[in-house]
């Protein structure tokens, strides 16, 4: 049982890392975000989106999800001189990652000890996760990034920015996943969701 668990954990970690989006955020530390009560939107900034998010459905998915999250944090939408101006930037670009050879299950194969893998000079350090995991090439993939930033209207400075990044398989999946990604991004916003009490 322990041996099976040893093999399952790395596989689970690989599957989890493939499907999850990663989120990063930054802000001006001295900013008091409790001073902001209203918000508005600037036009989206299109940067290398390759037409994935340059359409009405993507735009609606992003704005509806972001508005819902902002209102849950006590902010009110306003067209006239809002405290914060939000903008999103969608980026999809081609990237590459290394392809590895060998068995991803460790030195004993998938199910147990494999005597055929022994050879002169072989040892844990040399082959356990080394020789059998050497890069043999590169795989190209599309990386998608959705960035949302907030600008203080009075100072005209960006005071907060957050990004959700992950692999893009196809346009339809990417567009349908946008509300989930926006929610993950807005969880990085310095104001928490109001309890409603």
From TrEMBL:
Pfam families the record matches: DUF4136
Signal recorded as keyword: yes
Gene3D superfamilies: 3.30.160.670
Keyword Transmembrane (UniProt): no
Originating organism: Parapedobacter defluvii
Residue intervals of the DUF4136 domain: 29-190
Signal peptide annotation: 1-22
Lineage of the species this protein comes from: Bacteria, Pseudomonadati, Bacteroidota, Sphingobacteriia, Sphingobacteriales
Alphabetical UniProt keywords: Signal
Protein name in the entry: DUF4136 domain-containing protein
